[in-house]
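[worker-b] picked up task from shared queue
[worker-b] task type: protein-ligand structure
[worker-b] ligand name resolved to zinc ion; SMILES cross-checked against name lookup, match
[worker-b] sequence length check passed
[worker-b] input payload:
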Amino acid sequence: MNRITFLGSGGARVMLSTQVLATGGMIISLDDTHFSLDPGPGALVNIFKYNINPTDLHGIIISHRHLDHSADVNVMIEAMTKSGLVKSGQVFAPSDALDTDPVILRYLRKYLKEITCLLPLSNYVINNLPFTTSMPHHHGNEETYGFLFHGRNTVLGYIPDTAFFPGLLDFYKADVLVVSMLRLEKSNVLHLSVNDVEVIIKSVRPRITILTHFGFQIYQKGPEKIADYLEEKTGLKVIAAADGLEVDF
Ligand SMILES: [Zn+2]
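[worker-b] inference finished, payload out:
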């Protein structure tokens, strides 16, 4: 079964600090591969709420080093590897998350089977699931990549934080698309707004779009209302993530 479990549906400054919405990122199960994607604060605490055992994970993938995407990576490594008793798991992260100002503690790295530095538009394999990185996203100084996960029957896309740029429309050809939609309105902050997401859905035409990583304004407006609005505007299925939501596809 293919499944996304949202360990949190919130993102950015206010949600990270208040935990009004949880910020643990997601657990992806695609074909026979299970991994943590962007384990922000609360990933480890929340994984147990949804009956997922961290030792069953094949690895952890980080899109960029901002805390709401990476703060729990160390405790997740500790749990996944049983504190290094079982050398296991793969971790993938951009170079600035590994070298420049690392978010992954060096003493934990030897617990892992493999640690890989992500490059733009490159191919990787986690367990036996191939995936491709996007071009660098427009997200300030932090090196940021999205992903296409090439399942046997389904391509799953994940668009993490970025300002809108047309290259997104060419790259993210996915059947199921997870989009970080932080902002209600377009702004100079390097994040996607509701209107940006509408443009993306109309162009990519995924079978299912799942909105997540909500900022406070989106939360106040109601993520489900916005999903309904986008579904009406695009004529395609749009779901709002929620803390603990499981989406089977
Ligand atoms: Zn970010």
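[worker-b] attaching auto-annotations
[worker-b] DSSP finds ten helices and 14 strands in the chain.
[worker-b] releasing lock
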